[in-house]
Amino acid sequence: MTMTAEPEIVLEARNITKRFPGVVANEQVSLTLRRGEVLALLGENGAGKTTLMNILYGLYHQDSGEVLIRGEPVRIGGPSDSIRRGIGMVHQHFMLVPVFTVAENIILGAETVKGPFLDLNIARQRIRELSRQYHLDVDPDAYVKDLSVGQQQRVEIIKALYRNADILILDEPTAVLTPQETEELFAIIRSLTARGASVIFISHKLKEVLAIADRIIVLRRGRVVGETTPREATERSLAEMMVGRSVMLEVEKGEAHPGAPMLVLEDVTVLDDRGQQVVNGVSLEVHAGEILGIAGVQGNGQTELVEAITGLRPVHSGKVRINGRDVTNASPRRISETGCAHVPEDRQEDGLVLTYSVADNLVLNTYYTPPFAHGVIRDDRAILDHAVRLIERYDVRTPSALTLVSALSGGNKQKVIIARELSREGRLLVAAQPTRGIDVGSIEFIHQQIVAERDRGAAVLLVSAELDEIMALSDRIAVMYHGRIVATLPAASATREELGLLMAGVQPVGALRESTTDGYGEVNVQR
Length: 527
Description:
Helix content: 25-40%
Strand order of the largest sheet: 6-9-10-3-11-12
CATH class of the largest domain: Alpha Beta
CATH architecture of the largest domain: 3-Layer(aba) Sandwich
Shape: globular
Radius of gyration: 25 Å
InterPro entries: AAA+_ATPase, ABC_carbohydrate_import_ATPase, ABC_transporter-like_ATP-bd, ABC_transporter-like_CS, P-loop_NTPase
CATH superfamily of the largest domain: P-loop containing nucleotide triphosphate hydrolases
Number of helices: 17
Subcellular location: Cell membrane
Membrane topology: Peripheral membrane protein
Strand content: 25-35%
Mean pLDDT: 87
Largest sheet: 6 strands, mixed
Distance between the termini: 63 Å
Number of strands: 24
Protein name: ABC transporter related
CATH topology of the largest domain: Rossmann fold
Keywords: ATP-binding, Cell membrane, Membrane, Nucleotide-binding, Repeat, Translocase, Transport
Protein backbone atom coordinates (compact mmCIF):
# COMPACT_ATOMS: atom_id res chain seq x y z
CA MET A 1 0.00 0.00 0.00
CA THR A 2 1.48 3.38 -1.04
CA MET A 3 1.07 6.43 1.15
CA THR A 4 0.40 9.77 -0.57
CA ALA A 5 2.68 12.45 0.82
CA GLU A 6 1.07 15.62 2.18
CA PRO A 7 1.77 18.68 -0.03
CA GLU A 8 4.56 20.93 1.23
CA ILE A 9 3.55 23.65 3.71
CA VAL A 10 4.64 26.88 2.00
CA LEU A 11 3.36 29.37 4.58
CA GLU A 12 2.59 29.01 8.26
CA ALA A 13 1.40 31.42 10.93
CA ARG A 14 1.95 30.24 14.49
CA ASN A 15 0.13 31.81 17.45
CA ILE A 16 -0.02 35.28 15.90
CA THR A 17 -1.20 37.98 18.31
CA LYS A 18 -1.64 41.63 17.36
CA ARG A 19 -3.02 44.33 19.65
CA PHE A 20 -4.11 47.87 18.95
CA PRO A 21 -5.14 50.37 21.67
CA GLY A 22 -8.19 48.83 23.33
CA VAL A 23 -8.51 46.01 20.77
CA VAL A 24 -6.99 42.55 20.36
CA ALA A 25 -7.19 42.13 16.56
CA ASN A 26 -5.56 38.67 16.43
CA GLU A 27 -5.21 36.34 19.39
CA GLN A 28 -3.10 33.19 19.07
CA VAL A 29 -4.05 32.73 15.41
CA SER A 30 -2.47 29.77 13.61
CA LEU A 31 -2.91 28.58 10.04
CA THR A 32 -1.05 26.68 7.34
CA LEU A 33 -1.09 27.05 3.56
CA ARG A 34 -0.02 24.11 1.43
CA ARG A 35 1.49 24.06 -2.03
CA GLY A 36 -1.18 24.08 -4.76
CA GLU A 37 -4.21 24.75 -2.54
CA VAL A 38 -6.83 27.45 -2.13
CA LEU A 39 -7.29 28.38 1.52
CA ALA A 40 -10.40 30.49 2.12
CA LEU A 41 -10.47 32.89 5.06
CA LEU A 42 -13.92 33.83 6.41
CA GLY A 43 -15.02 36.03 9.26
CA GLU A 44 -17.24 38.90 10.36
CA ASN A 45 -16.12 42.51 10.06
CA GLY A 46 -13.57 43.05 12.78
CA ALA A 47 -12.76 39.33 13.01
CA GLY A 48 -9.08 40.00 12.26
CA LYS A 49 -8.75 38.78 8.65
CA THR A 50 -7.27 41.99 7.26
CA THR A 51 -4.89 42.40 10.19
CA LEU A 52 -3.59 38.87 9.69
CA MET A 53 -3.09 39.38 5.94
CA ASN A 54 -1.33 42.70 6.59
CA ILE A 55 1.07 40.85 8.88
CA LEU A 56 1.77 38.22 6.23
CA TYR A 57 2.29 40.94 3.60
CA GLY A 58 4.56 43.03 5.84
CA LEU A 59 2.30 46.03 6.46
CA TYR A 60 2.09 45.19 10.20
CA HIS A 61 4.34 43.22 12.51
CA GLN A 62 2.88 40.84 15.07
CA ASP A 63 3.29 41.43 18.81
CA SER A 64 3.97 37.73 19.35
CA GLY A 65 4.02 34.52 17.35
CA GLU A 66 5.94 33.73 14.19
CA VAL A 67 5.62 33.39 10.43
CA LEU A 68 7.36 30.59 8.56
CA ILE A 69 7.90 30.39 4.80
CA ARG A 70 8.74 26.89 3.58
CA GLY A 71 9.59 25.91 7.13
CA GLU A 72 11.95 28.82 7.79
CA PRO A 73 11.01 31.40 10.46
CA VAL A 74 11.09 34.88 8.89
CA ARG A 75 10.55 38.47 9.93
CA ILE A 76 8.76 40.29 7.12
CA GLY A 77 9.90 43.88 7.30
CA GLY A 78 7.62 45.31 4.63
CA PRO A 79 5.82 44.57 1.34
CA SER A 80 9.08 44.55 -0.64
CA ASP A 81 10.41 41.89 1.74
CA SER A 82 7.18 39.93 1.31
CA ILE A 83 7.39 40.15 -2.49
CA ARG A 84 11.03 39.04 -2.41
CA ARG A 85 9.94 35.93 -0.48
CA GLY A 86 7.31 35.06 -3.10
CA ILE A 87 4.16 36.53 -1.53
CA GLY A 88 1.91 38.71 -3.72
CA MET A 89 -1.32 40.46 -2.73
CA VAL A 90 -4.16 41.56 -5.00
CA HIS A 91 -6.07 44.22 -3.08
CA GLN A 92 -9.81 44.74 -3.39
CA HIS A 93 -9.15 48.23 -4.79
CA PHE A 94 -6.69 47.80 -7.63
CA MET A 95 -3.31 49.57 -7.49
CA LEU A 96 -3.10 50.50 -11.19
CA VAL A 97 -2.36 53.72 -13.08
CA PRO A 98 -5.20 54.14 -15.63
CA VAL A 99 -3.20 56.14 -18.21
CA PHE A 100 -0.33 53.61 -18.30
CA THR A 101 -0.27 50.49 -20.46
CA VAL A 102 -0.54 47.02 -18.95
CA ALA A 103 3.21 46.52 -19.36
CA GLU A 104 4.05 49.88 -17.78
CA ASN A 105 1.83 49.08 -14.78
CA ILE A 106 3.29 45.63 -14.30
CA ILE A 107 6.95 46.71 -14.31
CA LEU A 108 6.46 49.67 -11.92
CA GLY A 109 9.01 49.09 -9.19
CA ALA A 110 10.60 46.19 -11.08
CA GLU A 111 11.80 47.94 -14.22
CA THR A 112 14.02 46.21 -16.77
CA VAL A 113 16.61 48.46 -18.39
CA LYS A 114 19.04 48.29 -21.28
CA GLY A 115 21.84 50.66 -20.42
CA PRO A 116 20.23 53.89 -19.22
CA PHE A 117 16.94 53.18 -21.03
CA LEU A 118 13.77 51.37 -20.01
CA ASP A 119 13.41 48.10 -21.94
CA LEU A 120 9.71 47.33 -22.37
CA ASN A 121 10.29 44.58 -24.94
CA ILE A 122 11.56 42.11 -22.34
CA ALA A 123 8.61 42.95 -20.11
CA ARG A 124 6.09 42.52 -22.96
CA GLN A 125 7.53 39.11 -23.82
CA ARG A 126 7.39 37.96 -20.19
CA ILE A 127 3.80 39.23 -19.81
CA ARG A 128 2.73 37.33 -22.94
CA GLU A 129 4.36 34.17 -21.61
CA LEU A 130 2.57 34.48 -18.26
CA SER A 131 -0.70 35.30 -20.02
CA ARG A 132 -0.47 32.13 -22.14
CA GLN A 133 0.75 29.96 -19.27
CA TYR A 134 -2.11 30.87 -16.93
CA HIS A 135 -4.82 31.59 -19.55
CA LEU A 136 -5.03 35.25 -18.50
CA ASP A 137 -5.55 36.72 -22.01
CA VAL A 138 -4.00 40.15 -21.35
CA ASP A 139 -2.56 42.49 -24.00
CA PRO A 140 0.61 44.15 -22.63
CA ASP A 141 0.10 47.20 -24.88
CA ALA A 142 -3.52 47.92 -23.85
CA TYR A 143 -4.17 50.97 -21.67
CA VAL A 144 -5.57 50.09 -18.26
CA LYS A 145 -8.31 52.76 -18.55
CA ASP A 146 -9.73 50.84 -21.53
CA LEU A 147 -9.94 47.49 -19.69
CA SER A 148 -12.96 46.02 -17.93
CA VAL A 149 -12.80 45.46 -14.17
CA GLY A 150 -12.22 41.74 -14.71
CA GLN A 151 -9.32 42.42 -17.08
CA GLN A 152 -7.78 44.89 -14.62
CA GLN A 153 -7.86 42.19 -11.98
CA ARG A 154 -5.93 39.90 -14.35
CA VAL A 155 -3.31 42.63 -14.69
CA GLU A 156 -2.94 42.67 -10.90
CA ILE A 157 -2.48 38.88 -10.88
CA ILE A 158 0.14 39.06 -13.65
CA LYS A 159 1.88 41.85 -11.71
CA ALA A 160 2.30 39.45 -8.77
CA LEU A 161 3.39 36.55 -11.00
CA TYR A 162 5.85 38.82 -12.84
CA ARG A 163 7.60 39.27 -9.50
CA ASN A 164 7.75 35.45 -9.12
CA ALA A 165 5.05 35.21 -6.47
CA ASP A 166 3.87 31.66 -5.81
CA ILE A 167 1.77 32.59 -2.77
CA LEU A 168 -1.14 34.89 -3.70
CA ILE A 169 -3.44 36.70 -1.27
CA LEU A 170 -6.71 37.69 -3.01
CA ASP A 171 -8.75 40.19 -0.95
CA GLU A 172 -12.47 40.16 -1.86
CA PRO A 173 -11.50 39.40 -5.49
CA THR A 174 -15.07 39.03 -6.83
CA ALA A 175 -16.54 42.15 -5.22
CA VAL A 176 -17.11 44.02 -8.52
CA LEU A 177 -17.17 41.16 -11.06
CA THR A 178 -20.05 39.85 -13.15
CA PRO A 179 -20.98 36.16 -12.65
CA GLN A 180 -19.19 35.35 -15.92
CA GLU A 181 -16.04 37.21 -14.82
CA THR A 182 -16.16 35.37 -11.50
CA GLU A 183 -16.19 32.02 -13.31
CA GLU A 184 -13.25 33.17 -15.42
CA LEU A 185 -11.36 34.18 -12.27
CA PHE A 186 -12.01 30.76 -10.74
CA ALA A 187 -10.61 29.11 -13.88
CA ILE A 188 -7.49 31.28 -13.51
CA ILE A 189 -7.14 30.34 -9.82
CA ARG A 190 -7.41 26.64 -10.70
CA SER A 191 -4.76 27.13 -13.39
CA LEU A 192 -2.48 28.78 -10.84
CA THR A 193 -2.85 26.04 -8.24
CA ALA A 194 -2.45 23.30 -10.86
CA ARG A 195 1.01 24.73 -11.54
CA GLY A 196 1.93 24.76 -7.86
CA ALA A 197 0.89 28.25 -6.72
CA SER A 198 -0.97 28.64 -3.43
CA VAL A 199 -3.85 31.06 -2.86
CA ILE A 200 -5.42 32.67 0.22
CA PHE A 201 -8.95 33.68 -0.81
CA ILE A 202 -10.74 36.25 1.38
CA SER A 203 -14.45 36.68 0.70
CA HIS A 204 -17.86 37.31 2.28
CA LYS A 205 -19.58 35.24 -0.43
CA LEU A 206 -20.24 31.82 1.02
CA LYS A 207 -21.27 30.21 -2.29
CA GLU A 208 -18.01 31.25 -3.88
CA VAL A 209 -15.92 29.99 -0.98
CA LEU A 210 -17.61 26.60 -1.24
CA ALA A 211 -17.02 26.57 -5.01
CA ILE A 212 -13.29 27.44 -5.06
CA ALA A 213 -11.71 26.52 -1.70
CA ASP A 214 -9.86 23.35 -0.73
CA ARG A 215 -9.93 24.30 2.97
CA ILE A 216 -11.80 27.00 4.92
CA ILE A 217 -10.67 28.72 8.11
CA VAL A 218 -13.14 30.87 10.05
CA LEU A 219 -12.13 33.74 12.34
CA ARG A 220 -14.37 35.30 14.97
CA ARG A 221 -13.32 38.12 17.29
CA GLY A 222 -9.68 37.65 16.44
CA ARG A 223 -9.55 33.89 17.04
CA VAL A 224 -9.74 30.84 14.81
CA VAL A 225 -13.08 29.20 15.64
CA GLY A 226 -13.10 26.47 13.05
CA GLU A 227 -11.53 24.78 10.06
CA THR A 228 -13.49 22.80 7.51
CA THR A 229 -13.72 21.82 3.84
CA PRO A 230 -16.39 22.45 1.19
CA ARG A 231 -17.26 18.76 1.34
CA GLU A 232 -18.11 19.02 5.04
CA ALA A 233 -19.61 22.52 5.14
CA THR A 234 -22.77 24.29 3.96
CA GLU A 235 -23.56 27.98 3.60
CA ARG A 236 -25.63 27.76 6.76
CA SER A 237 -22.94 26.05 8.83
CA LEU A 238 -20.31 28.56 7.67
CA ALA A 239 -22.60 31.50 8.49
CA GLU A 240 -23.29 30.14 11.97
CA MET A 241 -19.56 29.59 12.55
CA MET A 242 -18.79 33.18 11.48
CA VAL A 243 -21.51 34.86 13.55
CA GLY A 244 -21.89 32.45 16.46
CA ARG A 245 -25.64 32.05 15.99
CA SER A 246 -28.20 30.85 13.48
CA VAL A 247 -28.47 33.18 10.46
CA MET A 248 -31.36 33.54 8.01
CA LEU A 249 -29.65 33.38 4.60
CA GLU A 250 -32.81 33.69 2.51
CA VAL A 251 -34.59 37.03 2.33
CA GLU A 252 -38.14 36.66 3.57
CA LYS A 253 -40.50 38.94 1.69
CA GLY A 254 -44.04 38.70 0.52
CA GLU A 255 -45.60 39.92 -2.69
CA ALA A 256 -45.17 43.59 -3.57
CA HIS A 257 -48.20 45.88 -3.82
CA PRO A 258 -46.94 48.77 -5.97
CA GLY A 259 -48.69 52.09 -5.76
CA ALA A 260 -48.12 55.46 -7.41
CA PRO A 261 -44.72 56.41 -8.83
CA MET A 262 -42.63 57.99 -6.07
CA LEU A 263 -39.38 58.56 -8.00
CA VAL A 264 -39.53 59.49 -11.68
CA LEU A 265 -36.47 60.09 -13.86
CA GLU A 266 -37.02 61.62 -17.29
CA ASP A 267 -34.16 61.29 -19.80
CA VAL A 268 -31.52 62.08 -17.16
CA THR A 269 -27.96 62.76 -18.30
CA VAL A 270 -25.07 63.17 -15.83
CA LEU A 271 -21.38 64.03 -16.28
CA ASP A 272 -18.46 62.74 -14.25
CA ASP A 273 -15.72 64.84 -12.65
CA ARG A 274 -13.86 65.08 -15.98
CA GLY A 275 -16.93 66.34 -17.83
CA GLN A 276 -17.53 63.00 -19.57
CA GLN A 277 -21.10 61.77 -19.97
CA VAL A 278 -21.54 58.72 -17.72
CA VAL A 279 -25.35 58.60 -17.40
CA ASN A 280 -26.96 58.70 -20.80
CA GLY A 281 -30.69 59.45 -21.04
CA VAL A 282 -31.94 57.30 -18.14
CA SER A 283 -35.69 57.17 -17.62
CA LEU A 284 -37.30 55.04 -14.92
CA GLU A 285 -40.00 54.97 -12.26
CA VAL A 286 -39.89 53.56 -8.74
CA HIS A 287 -43.33 52.98 -7.24
CA ALA A 288 -44.44 53.16 -3.63
CA GLY A 289 -44.39 49.67 -2.13
CA GLU A 290 -41.78 48.16 -4.45
CA ILE A 291 -38.03 47.60 -4.63
CA LEU A 292 -36.45 48.43 -7.97
CA GLY A 293 -32.94 47.01 -8.13
CA ILE A 294 -30.30 48.40 -10.48
CA ALA A 295 -27.82 45.68 -11.44
CA GLY A 296 -24.51 46.39 -13.12
CA VAL A 297 -20.77 46.12 -12.83
CA GLN A 298 -19.29 49.01 -10.85
CA GLY A 299 -18.34 51.94 -13.07
CA ASN A 300 -21.28 51.94 -15.47
CA GLY A 301 -22.81 55.17 -14.17
CA GLN A 302 -24.67 53.88 -11.11
CA THR A 303 -22.65 55.99 -8.66
CA GLU A 304 -23.21 59.22 -10.59
CA LEU A 305 -26.91 58.44 -11.09
CA VAL A 306 -27.46 58.05 -7.33
CA GLU A 307 -25.49 61.24 -6.66
CA ALA A 308 -27.69 63.13 -9.13
CA ILE A 309 -30.90 61.82 -7.53
CA THR A 310 -29.75 62.77 -4.02
CA GLY A 311 -28.36 66.21 -4.90
CA LEU A 312 -24.67 65.37 -4.60
CA ARG A 313 -23.98 65.86 -8.33
CA PRO A 314 -25.58 68.18 -10.92
CA VAL A 315 -28.06 66.80 -13.45
CA HIS A 316 -26.73 67.84 -16.86
CA SER A 317 -30.11 67.41 -18.55
CA GLY A 318 -33.44 65.75 -17.85
CA LYS A 319 -35.74 65.81 -14.83
CA VAL A 320 -35.83 64.19 -11.38
CA ARG A 321 -39.18 64.11 -9.56
CA ILE A 322 -39.84 62.82 -6.03
CA ASN A 323 -43.48 62.45 -4.98
CA GLY A 324 -44.54 64.68 -7.87
CA ARG A 325 -42.12 67.52 -7.01
CA ASP A 326 -39.37 68.58 -9.39
CA VAL A 327 -36.13 68.28 -7.41
CA THR A 328 -33.73 68.50 -10.36
CA ASN A 329 -30.48 70.02 -9.04
CA ALA A 330 -32.03 70.72 -5.63
CA SER A 331 -29.73 70.72 -2.60
CA PRO A 332 -29.24 67.50 -0.59
CA ARG A 333 -31.10 69.10 2.33
CA ARG A 334 -34.12 69.97 0.21
CA ILE A 335 -34.20 66.48 -1.27
CA SER A 336 -33.93 64.96 2.21
CA GLU A 337 -36.85 67.12 3.34
CA THR A 338 -39.05 65.65 0.57
CA GLY A 339 -38.81 62.34 2.46
CA CYS A 340 -35.84 60.85 0.60
CA ALA A 341 -33.57 58.64 2.74
CA HIS A 342 -30.11 57.94 1.34
CA VAL A 343 -27.72 55.10 2.23
CA PRO A 344 -24.59 56.20 0.33
CA GLU A 345 -22.13 53.95 -1.47
CA ASP A 346 -19.13 55.20 0.51
CA ARG A 347 -20.15 55.23 4.16
CA GLN A 348 -16.93 56.84 5.39
CA GLU A 349 -16.82 59.67 2.85
CA ASP A 350 -20.51 60.46 2.33
CA GLY A 351 -22.43 58.77 5.14
CA LEU A 352 -20.63 59.62 8.38
CA VAL A 353 -18.50 62.23 10.07
CA LEU A 354 -15.86 59.97 11.60
CA THR A 355 -14.74 62.50 14.21
CA TYR A 356 -18.30 62.88 15.55
CA SER A 357 -19.96 60.61 18.10
CA VAL A 358 -22.52 57.97 17.25
CA ALA A 359 -25.22 60.25 18.71
CA ASP A 360 -24.24 63.20 16.52
CA ASN A 361 -24.07 61.02 13.40
CA LEU A 362 -27.63 59.86 14.08
CA VAL A 363 -28.95 63.43 13.65
CA LEU A 364 -26.75 64.68 10.79
CA ASN A 365 -29.78 65.53 8.64
CA THR A 366 -32.20 66.54 11.43
CA TYR A 367 -30.01 68.29 14.03
CA TYR A 368 -31.58 71.68 13.22
CA THR A 369 -35.20 70.53 13.72
CA PRO A 370 -37.25 69.95 16.89
CA PRO A 371 -36.83 68.15 19.25
CA PHE A 372 -33.06 68.28 18.64
CA ALA A 373 -32.93 72.06 18.37
CA HIS A 374 -35.08 74.99 19.43
CA GLY A 375 -34.18 77.85 17.15
CA VAL A 376 -30.39 78.04 17.30
CA ILE A 377 -30.19 76.19 20.64
CA ARG A 378 -29.18 72.53 20.44
CA ASP A 379 -30.84 70.05 22.85
CA ASP A 380 -28.11 67.57 23.80
CA ARG A 381 -30.41 65.52 26.04
CA ALA A 382 -32.92 64.97 23.20
CA ILE A 383 -30.09 63.96 20.84
CA LEU A 384 -28.68 61.49 23.39
CA ASP A 385 -32.08 59.97 24.20
CA HIS A 386 -32.77 59.59 20.47
CA ALA A 387 -29.41 57.84 19.99
CA VAL A 388 -29.99 55.41 22.85
CA ARG A 389 -33.35 54.38 21.36
CA LEU A 390 -31.93 53.84 17.87
CA ILE A 391 -28.86 51.97 19.12
CA GLU A 392 -31.16 49.46 20.79
CA ARG A 393 -33.67 49.25 17.93
CA TYR A 394 -31.05 48.79 15.21
CA ASP A 395 -28.65 46.66 17.27
CA VAL A 396 -25.67 49.00 16.87
CA ARG A 397 -22.74 47.44 18.77
CA THR A 398 -21.07 50.42 20.45
CA PRO A 399 -19.75 50.99 23.97
CA SER A 400 -21.79 54.18 24.22
CA ALA A 401 -23.79 56.71 22.20
CA LEU A 402 -20.90 59.12 22.81
CA THR A 403 -18.28 56.80 21.25
CA LEU A 404 -16.67 58.22 18.11
CA VAL A 405 -18.19 56.49 15.09
CA SER A 406 -14.66 55.94 13.71
CA ALA A 407 -14.13 53.32 16.46
CA LEU A 408 -16.95 51.08 15.17
CA SER A 409 -16.59 48.11 12.82
CA GLY A 410 -17.74 48.46 9.21
CA GLY A 411 -21.00 46.66 9.87
CA ASN A 412 -21.85 48.85 12.84
CA LYS A 413 -20.97 52.02 10.93
CA GLN A 414 -23.46 50.88 8.29
CA LYS A 415 -26.08 50.24 10.96
CA VAL A 416 -25.67 53.83 12.21
CA ILE A 417 -26.49 55.08 8.68
CA ILE A 418 -29.43 52.67 8.33
CA ALA A 419 -30.76 53.75 11.75
CA ARG A 420 -30.49 57.45 10.90
CA GLU A 421 -32.09 57.19 7.47
CA LEU A 422 -34.90 54.75 8.27
CA SER A 423 -35.92 56.29 11.59
CA ARG A 424 -37.46 59.21 9.68
CA GLU A 425 -40.83 58.90 7.99
CA GLY A 426 -39.45 58.72 4.47
CA ARG A 427 -41.32 58.00 1.26
CA LEU A 428 -38.27 57.04 -0.82
CA LEU A 429 -35.18 55.05 0.13
CA VAL A 430 -32.14 55.22 -2.16
CA ALA A 431 -29.75 52.49 -1.00
CA ALA A 432 -26.40 52.26 -2.81
CA GLN A 433 -24.24 49.20 -2.08
CA PRO A 434 -25.95 48.89 1.34
CA THR A 435 -24.07 45.72 2.39
CA ARG A 436 -20.68 46.22 0.72
CA GLY A 437 -17.83 44.81 2.79
CA ILE A 438 -19.94 43.75 5.77
CA ASP A 439 -20.47 40.36 7.33
CA VAL A 440 -23.32 37.92 6.91
CA GLY A 441 -24.98 38.81 10.24
CA SER A 442 -25.16 42.52 9.42
CA ILE A 443 -26.31 41.72 5.86
CA GLU A 444 -29.24 39.72 7.26
CA PHE A 445 -30.30 42.66 9.46
CA ILE A 446 -30.01 45.31 6.72
CA HIS A 447 -31.96 43.20 4.23
CA GLN A 448 -34.77 42.86 6.77
CA GLN A 449 -34.89 46.64 7.21
CA ILE A 450 -35.02 47.31 3.46
CA VAL A 451 -37.92 44.88 2.99
CA ALA A 452 -39.71 46.43 5.99
CA GLU A 453 -39.46 49.85 4.30
CA ARG A 454 -41.10 48.47 1.17
CA ASP A 455 -43.82 46.78 3.18
CA ARG A 456 -44.77 50.00 4.95
CA GLY A 457 -45.27 51.65 1.55
CA ALA A 458 -41.97 53.34 0.77
CA ALA A 459 -40.41 53.21 -2.69
CA VAL A 460 -36.94 51.65 -2.65
CA LEU A 461 -34.23 52.16 -5.28
CA LEU A 462 -31.54 49.55 -4.59
CA VAL A 463 -28.17 49.85 -6.36
CA SER A 464 -25.80 46.95 -5.81
CA ALA A 465 -22.92 45.20 -7.54
CA GLU A 466 -23.98 42.02 -5.68
CA LEU A 467 -26.21 40.15 -8.10
CA ASP A 468 -27.47 37.76 -5.39
CA GLU A 469 -28.59 40.78 -3.34
CA ILE A 470 -30.37 42.36 -6.32
CA MET A 471 -32.19 39.11 -7.14
CA ALA A 472 -33.15 38.39 -3.53
CA LEU A 473 -34.53 41.84 -2.65
CA SER A 474 -35.90 43.32 -5.88
CA ASP A 475 -39.40 43.20 -7.29
CA ARG A 476 -38.11 44.54 -10.63
CA ILE A 477 -34.55 44.67 -11.92
CA ALA A 478 -33.09 47.31 -14.23
CA VAL A 479 -29.68 46.52 -15.75
CA MET A 480 -27.29 49.42 -16.29
CA TYR A 481 -24.47 49.24 -18.84
CA HIS A 482 -22.33 52.12 -20.13
CA GLY A 483 -24.65 54.70 -18.59
CA ARG A 484 -27.89 53.31 -20.02
CA ILE A 485 -30.70 51.14 -18.71
CA VAL A 486 -30.45 48.27 -21.20
CA ALA A 487 -33.28 46.13 -19.77
CA THR A 488 -35.95 46.14 -17.07
CA LEU A 489 -37.17 42.70 -15.99
CA PRO A 490 -39.49 41.19 -13.37
CA ALA A 491 -37.24 39.76 -10.64
CA ALA A 492 -39.32 36.62 -10.27
CA SER A 493 -38.41 35.35 -13.74
CA ALA A 494 -34.93 36.84 -14.27
CA THR A 495 -32.01 34.40 -14.25
CA ARG A 496 -28.41 34.89 -13.16
CA GLU A 497 -27.15 34.00 -16.63
CA GLU A 498 -29.48 36.47 -18.31
CA LEU A 499 -28.59 39.29 -15.93
CA GLY A 500 -24.88 38.51 -16.03
CA LEU A 501 -24.83 38.74 -19.82
CA LEU A 502 -26.75 42.02 -19.76
CA MET A 503 -24.31 43.41 -17.17
CA ALA A 504 -21.49 42.58 -19.59
CA GLY A 505 -23.27 44.32 -22.48
CA VAL A 506 -24.39 41.11 -24.21
CA GLN A 507 -28.02 40.56 -25.18
CA PRO A 508 -28.89 36.90 -24.41
CA VAL A 509 -30.33 35.39 -27.61
CA GLY A 510 -33.94 34.39 -27.13
CA ALA A 511 -33.74 34.78 -23.36
CA LEU A 512 -35.45 38.13 -22.91
CA ARG A 513 -39.08 39.10 -23.11
CA GLU A 514 -39.50 41.98 -25.54
CA SER A 515 -42.44 43.27 -23.56
CA THR A 516 -44.36 41.65 -20.73
CA THR A 517 -46.41 42.87 -17.82
CA ASP A 518 -45.88 42.19 -14.14
CA GLY A 519 -48.16 44.62 -12.37
CA TYR A 520 -46.09 47.67 -13.27
CA GLY A 521 -46.82 48.10 -16.96
CA GLU A 522 -44.33 47.20 -19.67
CA VAL A 523 -41.02 45.52 -19.04
CA ASN A 524 -38.61 47.02 -21.55
CA VAL A 525 -35.61 45.48 -23.22
CA GLN A 526 -33.51 47.97 -25.16
CA ARG A 527 -31.66 46.49 -28.10
